[in-house]
Amino acid sequence: MKRVRYRSDLRTKSIGNLTPVISLNLWSMAFEIRQISAAQTWPLRHLVLWPNQPLAYVQLRNDHEGKHYGLFVEQQLVSIISLFTDSYSVQFRKFATLTNFQGKGYGGALFEYVIEMVKKEGFGKVWCNARIDKTGFYRKFGMVETKAHFCKGEIDYIIMEKNLKREVLL
User: Which residues contact 90 (CB under 8 A, 6 or more apart)?
Assistant: First the structure.
């Protein structure tokens, strides 16, 4: 397990098909980010995103095609994100952090880790279907709103994206 300081020293290396596991100490926050299974994301997805729906509601048809990452604090899974790729872009879905861990930087650390990883892998864009009330969070990471809106389960969404190729060229 590689230990690094968070700020600008976020570096990991993959060995063959192994996914990097990273342990970070963000100021006073000690946590670990690692790849997890789709099934490991479901309880947290359900609890945070759709608690009034059956568990099956948060299980995606293509979960088996995605890469899923979790942030652990003292071995407790507190934040999750799922990535789905095509040849140019990465869509992240079902990004959630336990309510009592929100606003403490854990979700932001996981999101920043994923963005850096996606950039290093050479993808041109990252995007999501953001809940309208969460757009401020994503703007902090350079994501911009598109004109595409929709509603699901009485929740309004907007598609947000970040052009990663432009950042590399700057």
Answer: 83, 84, 118, 123, 125, 126, 127
The topology under which CATH files domain 2-169 is Aminopeptidase (3.40.630)
Nearest in space to 167 (alpha carbons), one of 146, 143, 147: 143
- Please give the average per-residue pLDDT across 35-42, as a whole number: 94
Q: Where are the domains of the chain?
A: 2-169
Distances (CA, A) of 44 to 114, 135, 140, 152, 169: 18, 21, 24, 19, 37
> How do residues 50-90 score in pLDDT, each as one tens digit?
888 899 998 889 899 999 999 999 899 999 999 999 888 89
The strand pair at 125-131 and 89-97 is best described as parallel
Rounded Cα distance between 163 and 90, Å, is 11
Residues 6 or more apart whose CB falls under 8 angstroms from that of 29 comprise 73, 104, 105, 106, 109
Backbone angles phi, psi at 50, to 5 degrees: -140, 60
